[in-house]
Amino acid sequence: MKWLKRIILVILVIILVVIGIVLANGYGLYRDVIKEKSIEDKVEEIRNDEDFVALSSLPEKYKQAVIAVEDHRYEEHGAIDLIAIGRAIWVNVSNFELREGGSTITQQVAKNMYFIGNNENPINRKIAEIFVAFDLESKYSKDDILELYVNTIYFGDGYYGIKEACNGYLDKEPQDMTLYEATMMAGIPNAPSVYAPTVNPELTKSRQQKVIDSMVEYGYLTQEEADSIHE
Questions:
Q1: Enclosing domain of residue 120
Q2: C or N: which end of the chain has fewer Cβ atoms within 10 Å?
Q3: Alpha helices, DSSP H only, in 140-200?
């Protein structure tokens, strides 16, 4: 039994060393990117963009749709959501494929701000995103972060942010979205190459229905309201 205990101890030590190395590498990447441009400067850069849209000008149902389908516990957790991460691990392992992610809206903002097109090791990048996400949560409100999200997320067809996407796909301003349009737009960023209306309208509608169902599940719409949504 002694040899078995020693083997287990060695394995645990190796695991801890690997975790330490991964965390150190991720933290180093985080330090590098914020040294090049601080989070405050990045946020100011986003807010100064001519296509920036204030969260207060967006339809309430669009904001609710985004939260319902992307991160329904957004108001309850911090930079990361351990419950969502655990659920994603279970779903992916039990299905032997990558079906679900556990990233929060804040983590997605961190990725959009610093790591789009970054060629670093994906694990290092993910750890760095988490460090940036913790900074964002400590310095900005949930509304601020959601505002950054809708202004930086990719919608496909070269459209970044809700204004470009609404102008391009709907030929209107974001504040003028109908409930039908809001639920459609909320679903696109999950996989723009699949759900963009210019790619496959049927898949766009399928994803839109997922958004609507999530809004009903989390109390943002009644079933009657959901059933009445149409073009």
A1: 2-72+81-227
A2: N
A3: 142-152, 162-165, 179-187, 192-195
Determine the average pLDDT of the residues in 8-14. Answer: 80
Crossing angle of the two packed helices 179-187 and 201-217, in degrees rounded to 10:
100
* 87 φ/ψ angles, rounded to the nearest 5 degrees: -65, -40
Residue 12: CATH number of its domain = 1.10.3810.10
Question: Structural domain tally of the chain?
Answer: 1
Residue 224 C-beta-side C-alpha neighbours within 13 Å = 0
User: Long-range pairs for 34-39 at CB < 8 Å and ≥24 separation?
Assistant: 34/114, 34/132, 34/135, 39/113, 39/132, 39/135, 39/136, 39/139
- Predicted structure pTM score: 0.88
First CA to last CA across the chain, in angstroms? 69
- What pLDDT is recorded for position 212? 96
Tens digit of each residue's pLDDT (9 = 90 or more) over 105-147: 999 999 999 988 777 788 889 999 999 999 999 999 999 999 9
Give me the chain's average pLDDT, please.
89
